[in-house]
């Protein structure tokens, strides 16, 4: 089994004024691993992910990508290292087609004189190839995002995050807003990413999500590492206990 550590956070603390959101937190994830992160509201999950993605600068501690210590100053820095984050609000443009959303801000372009023209044919082809690779079913890459179901939108957000050779994808509550039948599709997508060798960190309050896709689960409690386990060595009741700060 591959034990290549693709991302490691060591002793991360994050202070907002007098608030300690994270205190000496450690996290690591190996290639192709799906790590579940759980914790009560305010436990520090989103803050930790924002530190990993370079949106927030940690107050203390270090980040390592593939063993190299890095200094992230923006999400662009972590993207360049192969990390993509799917935010809870998805940040998609509803009035634009799927293909445009996937390439928003990073379109394949044809240079014509001093101007950059979007190459629509190329973009559509790349979008269709990418959706097929992830086994995402939509009627057409030209369909507008506002016409899609919640689950399809989540799939487009994940497709966008993984279109540029992501090695690590972070998803903050990817199923929270979805109907039951759409949840399964998003979970399948996570397993597809895993099979492609992508490492996935998934924050979820739903034990069904955690127990259907994760290899390992870690719990934060009041900004600290509280417990962690391989999934096969724990149970739903135990993990629910960790969220509430209980250990046997
Ligand atoms: N920008 C900020 N400024 C001040 N405090 C913040 C900021 N972001 C987060 N916090 C505080 O840090 C703590 C952790 O918040 P965080 O959003 O990481 O929690 P969470 O585990 O993601 O919770 P939830 O499950 O509700 O999404 C909370 O006490 C929160 O109020
Ligand atoms: Mg959160």
What does this structure look like?
- The chain has 248 residues and is α/β, with parallel strands linked by helices.
- The chain has a single domain, classed as 3-Layer(aba) Sandwich (Rossmann fold).
- Helix content is 31%, strand content 29%.
- The protein contains eight helices and twelve strands.
- β7 and β8 form a beta hairpin.
- The radius of gyration is 19 Å and the shape is globular.
- The structure holds adenosine-5'-triphosphate and magnesium ion.
- Adenosine-5'-triphosphate binds next to β2 and α1.
Summarize the helix and strand pattern as letters.
EEEHEEHEHEEHHEHEHEEH
CATH topology: Rossmann fold
Distinct small molecules: adenosine-5'-triphosphate, magnesium ion
User: For the report, how would you describe the main beta sheet?
Assistant: 6 strands, mixed
Q: How many beta-strand runs?
A: 12
- Helix fraction, binned, reads 25-40%
Share in β-strands: 25-35%
Q: What structural class do helix, strand and pairing data support? A: alpha/beta
- Mean pLDDT, all residues: 88
Number of helices: 8
Q: Low-confidence spans: pLDDT under 50, at least 5 residues?
A: none
Tag the structure with descriptive keywords.
248 residues, alpha/beta, Rossmann fold, 6-stranded mixed beta sheet, 4-stranded antiparallel beta sheet, globular, binds adenosine-5'-triphosphate, binds magnesium ion
């Amino acid at each position: 089994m591959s034990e290549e550590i693709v991302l490691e956070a060591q002793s991360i603390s994050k202070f907002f004024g007098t608030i300690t959101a994270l205190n000496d937190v450690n996290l690591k994830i190996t290639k192709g691993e799906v790590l579940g992160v759980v914790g009560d509201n305010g436990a520090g999950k989103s803050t930790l992910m924002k530190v990993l993605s370079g949106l927030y600068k940690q107050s203390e501690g270090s980040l390592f990508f593939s063993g190299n210590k890095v200094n992230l100053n923006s999400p662009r820095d972590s993207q360049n290292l192969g990390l993509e984050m799917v935010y809870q609000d998805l940040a998609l443009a509803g009035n634009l087609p799927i293909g445009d959303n996937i390439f928003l801000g990073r379109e394949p372009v044809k240079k014509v004189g001093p101007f950059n023209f979007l190459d629509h044919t190329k973009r559509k082809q790349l979008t269709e190839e990418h959706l097929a690779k992830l086994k995402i079913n939509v009627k057409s890459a030209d369909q507008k995002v506002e016409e899609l179901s919640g689950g399809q939108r989540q799939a487009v957000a994940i497709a966008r995050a993984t279109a540029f050779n992501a090695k690590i994808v972070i998803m903050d509550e990817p199923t929270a807003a979805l109907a039951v039948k759409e949840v399964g599709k998003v979970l399948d997508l996570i397993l597809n990413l895993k099979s492609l060798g992508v490492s996935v960190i998934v924050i979820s309050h739903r034990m069904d999500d955690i127990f259907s896709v994760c290899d390992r689960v870690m719990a934060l409690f009041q900004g600290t590492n509280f417990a962690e386990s391989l999934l096969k060595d724990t149970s739903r009741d135990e993990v629910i206990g960790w969220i509430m700060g209980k250990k046997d």
